[in-house]
Amino acid sequence: MATRSRLNWAPDSRGYYTRQIGWERSKSGKLQQHKFLLGTDRKQAEIRERKLRELWDQFEKSSTEPRPLWPEALVEIAARIAKGIPDIPVPRAPREMQHQYAARLQRMQAKYPVICFIPEDQHAYEIGQAALELFEAVPITVPDFKVEPLTDDQVLAQEKIQHLAREAGITVDPALGIAPALRKVSRSPLHELGILKPSDPAAVRSSESAQPLSMTAASRTGASNPSISAMKSPSATLHQAFKRYQAYLQKEFFRQETGHISPWGRTQVRQIKNLQRHHSDELLNNLDATAVGELIGYWRRRPCKLGSTEPISAKAASHYLGTLMRFLTWLHATSEFEWTKPQAFNDFDRRIRRLPSDHAKRGLEQVDTFSLEELRLLMRYGQPFDRLLLLLGLNCGFGRAEIASLLVGEVHLRKGHSPREQEILGFTTNDNDSFIKRIRRKSGVYGEHILFPLTVQGLEWAQERRQQFPGFAKSSRLILNERGTPLDQQTKGSNSNQAVPNQFARLIERIRDDGQEIRPLSFGKLRKTASDLIKRHSDGEIAGVFDCHGEPVKTDSLSDAYTNRPFGKVFRAIRVVETYLGPVFAEAGSAPFSPQPQAYTKRSVIEQIMALHEQGLPTGQIAAAVNVSSPTVTRHIQQYQDRQAPSTTE
Prior knowledge:
Layout: E1 18-25, E2 31-37, H1 42-62, H2 72-82, E3 87-90, H3 98-111, E4 116-119, H4 122-134, H5 152-167, H6 207-221, H7 226-231, H8 238-252, E5 254-255, E6 260-261, H9 263-278, H10 289-300, H11 314-333, H12 372-381, H13 384-396, H14 400-405, E7 411-412, H15 419-425, E8 435-439, E9 446-450, H16 453-466, H17 499-513, H18 524-537, H19 540-546, H20 559-562, H21 567-580, H22 582-586, H23 603-614, H24 619-626, H25 630-649
Parallel strand pairs: 3-4
Antiparallel strand pairs: 1-2, 5-6, 7-8, 8-9
Helix pairs in contact: 3-4, 4-5, 8-9, 9-11, 10-11, 13-16, 13-18, 18-19, 18-21, 19-21, 23-24, 23-25, 24-25
């Protein structure tokens, strides 16, 4: 067996995830498996493990040994993968001609597709790739070997190569037909695969040595910007354009206030990287109407996931196709590349293919929403913060973005509308009513929601909690985490904040661990549940206004330009939904936002403790009956009495 497979993932004492993959010789000569450290993040560790297994499987298949060992060159590549370094730089060997350099990179990429090989000498790679496109082999003059006379086609191709080389500012050796590498590179074991160690001085390009080459290229082409001049070369490729578009996205969607790229921008960068993995590299000059149509058709026909035979979902295909279209539009508009989109660009068919499996789950419930019984369980088992998330989702259709961005000044408790506002609304309000009035950040659409009485209690609890942290003002975020930081603050790794989804997932897991039946739906399904309830008790237009969609009436894009949105009808629908959710609210008890029993004690056990306590059994007998300690029983009885205190006083 080549690797040790484990189903469980458990970090070591230092917090690292590890896997043993492939074979090697120890210092004593004993055969052993190579151990890789995959980092402290489990999700990233799983991704790195899959890549390492693919790399080893490809090497093992190509080896003739019954039990091959990791080559020194390949194990260093594997070590970079284990560290999460996605790209492997490939240096150009001494006296290696450009077309040989480009061909070597192509062979390496074909042999190990799990790795992304990038050329260190970009100019030489571009010229070499152009040479491979124009003719199969460049004639080389070698001593003691006879060279056949060149054909007319070869002479013409050679002239084109020399022209491309002059454009890139590279000196052409007439005897070779294409320029050899002029720099010397110290040898290392990785030169067998064209890889240098990160610490190898030859792998580090100093700005002093890079500048003369760029300046030479600029002076010969007459360009004021050397990098743009090089990009405008006819040898520019699709993958180069992908990388430049990634740099554009990282700059365009960088947020000064957070110091990170926005989550949407980060998603676009990730999707561009996946596009590069799916599409082979080719010259931009070859991207004519037929080639562009094939790029679009590739995603429209829904390719299989990499490494599997399962096609991607229709939603994923639509997202990737949208990203591809935005990339091609940018490529047409940018001055960095000489590429123009074909005239039929807007006429290409972009309809995503539907598969029989897409319709297998079609039925009465076309959208996953929570049932009334599941909502009751969520309220019953929820802690105060859980209940606040649940109420904002059901009452206002808020997702995690709306909850995280809710400001103190957007909550209006016990304050009705003016007479003029009530006339516009067609709905009577008074100072017993409470509202959230805000502009949805995603759509830029203004919305108002009348609040359930239980939602009002939750927001009052949130206000008291928020005042414990500095900076309490109308313009400050209302809902923070336990450390006082926003719920949408990006992580150190620039990933989107998962505090709200994780909190909700833990609640569902707690319910399921207690033997209750509830589907593991995501937090986003609460917004769909709320929209579905509003639509069920009103109509589609009111549901669109409730959700703060850009066009609640799909057949009338100008309705917002000539009429006010019917928030009064939204208020009426919310009141009807409030009545429908009465059994859910009853699960919260008389003190819904007082400290609840600790989550590590099952709710069913707590209910048994309370039932036996009401029967007058002593603490010791209760502890023995439910199989918990006496202090645990005492604590839950005391918490139960504290929660009942407000109603007893009344």
